[in-house]
Structure prediction request, 122 residues.
Amino acid sequence: MRLEHRLNATEQAQAVARNLLGDDVPFAPVPYFWTDQYDAHIQAYGIFPADAELAVLHGELDNRHFVVAYGHRGRVVGVLGWNSPREVLKLRQLVADKAPWSSIEGSAPPVGALAGAAGPRG
Ligand SMILES: Cc1cc2nc3c(=O)[nH]c(=O)nc-3n(C[C@H](O)[C@H](O)[C@H](O)COP(=O)(O)OP(=O)(O)OC[C@H]3O[C@@H](n4cnc5c(N)ncnc54)[C@H](O)[C@@H]3O)c2cc1C
Prediction:
């Protein structure tokens, strides 16, 4: 998969350097990008298939502060944060864990319950 985002470029360089120095670790990051578009700070972890199911995990779409999960083939494959940097940072672990969609469907986990569960990768 081609990922044209700044962080991916950085993570590729880090992976190359590690493996040149003797590690033997496959390059398999959770895809991530962020962008600021006027007053919207948008962060996206994972992938976002066109036919994904959606679930709001935090906030409300109308007030422009929210985190939405994307489900595909029974798993959480992406989380998108809109003006919600703290919450999306915590909820990204759902993507890293490939959490079952059934575990969040209809009963969004409180963001606080995931606090600390999602440390930075690498
Ligand atoms: C308009 C725009 C907006 C973007 N916004 C975002 C964003 O909001 N968030 C985000 O995550 N990503 C964004 N991106 C994507 C991000 O910029 C790229 O994914 C990232 O810069 C890729 O980094 P890179 O080091 O692989 O390549 P580049 O940053 O393209 O660096 C390649 C470098 O190699 C040099 N080069 C090329 N050929 C040669 C050669 N033969 N000899 C010597 N030097 C050469 C080039 O001049 C360049 O400096 C945006 C891209 C564009 C174009």
Observations:
- The two ends are 20 Å apart (CA to CA).
- The mean pLDDT is 87.
